[in-house]
Amino acid sequence: MRSVGLIVGIVVLASLARAQAPIVNAGGVVNNGSYSSQGVAPGSIVAIFGTNLASKLAINDTIPISTTLDTVSSITFNGVTAGLYFVGPTQIDAQLPFESLPANATSATVNIVVTTNTGSSAAQTVNVVPALPGIFTVSQNGLGQAIATDSFDNAIVAPAGSIAGLTTHPFSLASVSAGHAVVIWCTGLGAVNPPIADGANSYNADGSLTIRNTVLTPTVTIGGVAAQVVGSVLSPQYVSEYQIGVVPGPTTPTGSAVPVVITMNGVTTSSQVTIAVAP
Fold first, then answer.
1. Whole-angstrom Cα distance, residue 240 to residue 198?
2. How high does pLDDT run on average in the chain?
3. Phi, psi of 7 (to 5 degrees)
4. Disulfide: which of 28, 85, 149, 264 matches 218 by Cβ 3.0-4.6 Å?
């Protein structure tokens, strides 16, 4: 009886170990800004959904960003290790390596594997495309008020007082004559020139800054009116965050929730992402 009990115990422990291995959901890798399931772009921040992905919530605080965090020992896309921003039991935010799209390829299907101290997940496939823009939003779900700022004072261009603890005001069309522009914060804009190492930001070891423009050029409309794109760059201080600078056209409609839409590589962001515009 004792040997039978021992065998049963071993079987139970083995089953528990298997149950604790990480699982990546089918279709569970999406753009971290838009949460679009259309694909993800090299160099972008992606959200990975599943179960048993980490033992607890943990946030990376280093640059270059680390490839290990909490119980996560690695995340690979076709064998290339990704940097980690945040891990939790059901979600991981990571940088999709720039090398995940083969040279000269317009798209590719790659495998993602999450490895923790309890084992490795079964591979899931991810569709990688050159660019798939996603605008960051205050709600962190790809909808509503955009993380977009006035180029002069860095205030979020939202209704005044609408976001607790942050300076907000509508973007004034009259301020364009004084050189103001709207800066849209996003991810998924793809390759940059000059290239950058995975996990790094654009500051160099000596403290100097390298401006890195996106290889592909976006178009932007605000309230359905074309805006002039004055810059599309990798954000200097952050990893995998991009900035698109635009000057709204003079006929741009005003209001507290005016749609801002980015089109890039044939992909258009949701018209439910908005900014506040004043005369």
1. 9
2. 92
3. -65, -45
4. 264
